[in-house]
């Protein structure tokens, strides 16, 4: 994504850096108006022993929107993922699904409600084919009772159709998934979640280990999932990956929220500055003697 990415959602009204308006999230960011969010957290907190992993974090995820959760290592992103995906219940605050309080016994409960999580390891077996990894435990069958058999032909056909509908070009669905690039594996995982009925797609650092081109591939499929009406939670530490596809941005630091911003309320430069610590980054630049040279007339 280049300088044109800021036009991805049309014209953007940008508040000047440092103004009060630039630090406020728009209540109607993303164009959803008063629609009930698919997911919402209100003042959620989580502790592990004496460690506060998450404190008073609120955010929401609407259908057809990408909510980006940004923060460095230790910011609380993983804990938030685990609350949203049903691994951990929050110790404080409220977690709502479709506007109603939700209490999941585990990730299976969340998946049954259409909340699918794609982790960095993708839960794929490298030596197995693309189509076997796509179904992996949910393979289509034919026949009944002792005559029940795997329907490999239907499985291959379904995978080709699903990948094609997402605009994903995989040469051969019989090739081992380990022969795919990192971006292609991520795209298969996204298509798999969409096929099995995900309404909310939580992506854990999907671009962290990818080069520029492959990261662009994944961002393209995130946008396509959003355009199909899914609510997407994109976890990342890279504002340059988040900004091209994001509609809403939640910034975390040491378990606490630094604010939630609609796309119209923050520029990519401001987002980067907020993540980097603005004044601290300027001070470091000065200490290292890397200030920009004065402009001569």
TrEMBL record:
Taxonomy, superkingdom: Bacteria
UniProt keyword list: ATP-binding, Nucleotide-binding, Sugar transport, Transport
Domain ABC transporter: start-end pairs: 39-279
Region (Disordered): 1-35
Gene Ontology molecular function, alphabetical: ATP binding; ATP hydrolysis activity
Keyword Transport: yes
Biased composition, class Basic and acidic residues, residue ranges: 1-12
PANTHER family: CARBOHYDRATE TRANSPORT ATP-BINDING PROTEIN MG119-RELATED, SUGAR ABC TRANSPORTER ATP-BINDING PROTEIN
Name under which the protein is recorded: Simple sugar transport system ATP-binding protein
């Amino acid at each position: 994504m280049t300088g044109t990415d800021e036009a991805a959602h049309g014209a953007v009204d940008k508040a000047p850096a440092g103004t009060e308006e630039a630090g406020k999230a728009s209540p109607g960011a993303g164009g959803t108006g008063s629609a009930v969010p698919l997911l919402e957290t209100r003042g959620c907190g989580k502790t592990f022993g004496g460690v506060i992993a998450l404190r008073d974090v609120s955010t929401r995820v609407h259908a057809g929107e990408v909510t980006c959760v940004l923060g460095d290592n230790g910011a609380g992103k993983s804990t938030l993922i685990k609350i949203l995906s049903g691994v951990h219940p929050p110790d404080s605050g409220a977690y709502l699904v479709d506007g109603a309080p939700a209490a999941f016994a585990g990730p299976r409960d969340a998946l049954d409600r259409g909340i699918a999580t794609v982790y960095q390891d993708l839960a794929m077996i490298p030596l197995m084919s693309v189509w076997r990894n796509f179904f992996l435990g949910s393979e289509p069958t034919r026949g009944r009772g002792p005559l029940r058999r795997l329907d490999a032909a239907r499985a291959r056909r379904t995978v080709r159709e699903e990948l094609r509908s997402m605009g994903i070009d995989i040469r051969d669905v019989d090739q081992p998934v380990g022969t795919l690039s990192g971006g292609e594996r991520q795209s298969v995982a996204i298509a798999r979640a969409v096929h099995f009925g995900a309404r909310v797609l939580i992506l854990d650092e999907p671009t962290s280990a990818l080069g520029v081109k492959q990261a662009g591939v994944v961002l393209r499929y995130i946008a396509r999932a959003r355009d199909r009406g899914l609510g997407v939670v994109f976890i990342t530490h890279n504002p340059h990956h988040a900004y091209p596809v994001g509609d809403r941005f939640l910034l975390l630091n040491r378990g606490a929220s630094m604010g939630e911003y609609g796309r119209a309320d923050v520029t990519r430069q401001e987002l980067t500055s907020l993540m980097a610590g603005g004044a601290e980054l300027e001070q470091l630049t000065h200490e290292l003697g890397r200030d920009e040279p004065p402009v001569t007339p």
